[in-house]
Amino acid sequence: MRAIFVALIILFSPSLWANINIITTTSDLAAIAKTIGGDKVSVTSLTKGTRDPHYAQAKPSMIRKLFRADLLVLVGAEMEVGWLPALIRSSRNKRVLPNNEGYLDISKVIDLKGKPGQRVTRDMGDVHGAGNPHYWLDPSNGILMAKAIADRFGMLDPANKAVYSDNFAEFKLQLEQKIVRWKSELQRFSGEKILAYHTSLLYLSTAFNLDVRGYIEPQPGLSPSASHLNRLLKKIESENIRYILMEPYYETRSAKLLQRKTNINLVIIPQSVGSQPQIKSYFDLFDSIVNALKAVQ
Q1: Does the domain at residues 15-181 carry the CATH identifier 3.20.20.150?
Q2: First to last CA, the chain
Q3: Could you count the other beta carbons within 10 Å of the beta carbon of residue 269?
Q4: At how many degrees (to 10) do helices 27-37 and 139-156 cross?
Q5: How far, in whole angstroms, is CA 194 from its chain's centroid?
Q6: Could you give the residue range(s) of every CATH 3.40.50.1980 domain in the chain?
Q7: What percent of the chain shows pLDDT beyond 70?
Q8: pLDDT tens, 152-187?
Q9: Burial (CB count <10 Å: 0-12, 13-18, 19+), residue 244
Q10: Could you tell me the pTM of the whole model?
Q11: Closest by Cα among 288, 35, 278, 265 to 137
Q12: Nearest 5°: CA angle at 190, between 284 and 139?
């Protein structure tokens, strides 16, 4: 009887089970949340790292996940505006409503780049009025993201606040050390002129001092026309641009045309945790990005 009693205590001991059920909108947020929360949290991403989070498909399974969530962590800055609000309403979970403790918009702690200086209209393409939401591609923003997550975990689970604080401190230390190494490894690219496919690489280019001279998209989210590609051909030759950088989920036909006609280097880089099988953490993401660039001769 005593053995059964002890077994029940162990089985239902809170320390053996996650205290907070976390839902994130992206795999990058999920990776950081897992690092900060450890075994004190359960973390699930609503989207995969292989997909563009702008255009996720709302599914009934997502509603069920949100219904059980203690905390929803989102990129914000209108990244998920096309699909997340309807899911939140359908989940009927008051905890994850905006302005509640169970709703964490990480964009609010980031100094967003690319804020339009005028009223946003459809003619401008896929422009976000709050600013460019791809901020996780600057690794220094990873520290701000992790701090916001650690603080909210501590608020929701004060008994383990010190654990989250310690995990954040370790994450910050490792990331700061890795940023120094990544910048050193990419020193030869500093000031290099590049073309990008989409404005999503604004933060990455700033972090590693890449000079973006143009975009394959004439406007964010709009497919390039023949005339636009012809202008890019002239720009590549006149400005001696040697690299095109793009994420794997965009069409490659246009970039490959420019490559064939100019011999420009085309570098397809991972954009999120999980976009390649070996990318399982936020650190892995930038290791892979750096390696993709270093592989170019």
Answers
A1: no
A2: 70
A3: 19
A4: 60
A5: 21
A6: 15-181, 182-294
A7: 90
A8: 999 999 999 999 999 999 999 999 999 999 999 999
A9: buried
A10: 0.90
A11: 288
A12: 30
